[in-house]
Automatic annotation (TrEMBL):
The protein, known as: Sulfurtransferase
One GO MF term: transferase activity
Rhodanese domain boundaries: 92-155
Species: Marinobacter vulgaris
Span of the signal peptide: 1-20
Keywords: Signal, Transferase
Source taxon at top rank: Bacteria
Length: 181
């Protein structure tokens, strides 16, 4: 009986700890509302490569563009048909610097946004959590959203995301906020 109880406690604590490491998602609308209500108490970061932003669109609601992954134009991945994207070695330090510029620390809310939410949004939030940031979330479905499952626009990113939620965006970039190494 004692061994069973210990096994259950170990199993529960492992599951609990794994869950504690996972970043929580916000909808684009929830993020927009947070920015409007508490923008001075949080940091909203677009984690896309700035060239991607230039071609897909941008919202000036962000505080800063700090890429989580940077395109490596010197390494083409033929099997995937794209360039490699490597983790920005300055990502966490640049996010912390942006927090300090707003008078905030690593305990303030940080919300990350990528193109779709899954390949860089959530991983970037969890990366920050692993480095001592305590309140990090990401935008589910990111800036551009997901692809349509059927119809004549099947595969086009016209479902969900910031861009498809009626929230403010444009093709005009704010040079004060766009990442420049």
């Amino acid at each position: 009986m004692k061994q069973l109880l210990i096994a259950l406690l170990v199993t529960f604590s492992i599951g609990f700890n794994a869950h504690a490491e996972e970043a929580l998602a916000l909808t684009p609308q929830e993020t927009y509302d947070l920015v409007q209500e508490q923008g001075d108490q949080m940091l909203f970061v677009d984690v896309r490569d700035p060239v991607e932003i230039m071609f897909i669109g941008y919202t000036d609601e962000i505080d800063k563009n700090v890429p989580f992954k940077l395109v490596d134009r010197g390494e083409f991945l033929a099997e995937k048909g794209r360039f490699a994207m490597n983790t920005n070695p300055d990502f966490a330090a640049d996010v912390e610097k942006a927090l300090k510029e707003k008078g905030l620390d690593k305990n303030a809310l940080v919300v990350t946004m990528c193109r779709s939410g899954s390949t860089r949004g959530k991983p970037s939030a969890e990366y920050l959590m692993e480095r001592g940031f305590t309140n990090v979330k990401y935008i589910d479905n990111g800036f551009q959203g997901g692809g349509a499952k059927e119809g004549e626009k099947k595969g086009m990113r016209i479902v969900s995301g910031w861009q498809n939620s009626g929230l403010p965006w444009s093709m005009d970039l704010n040079p004060e906020k766009i990442y420049r190494p």
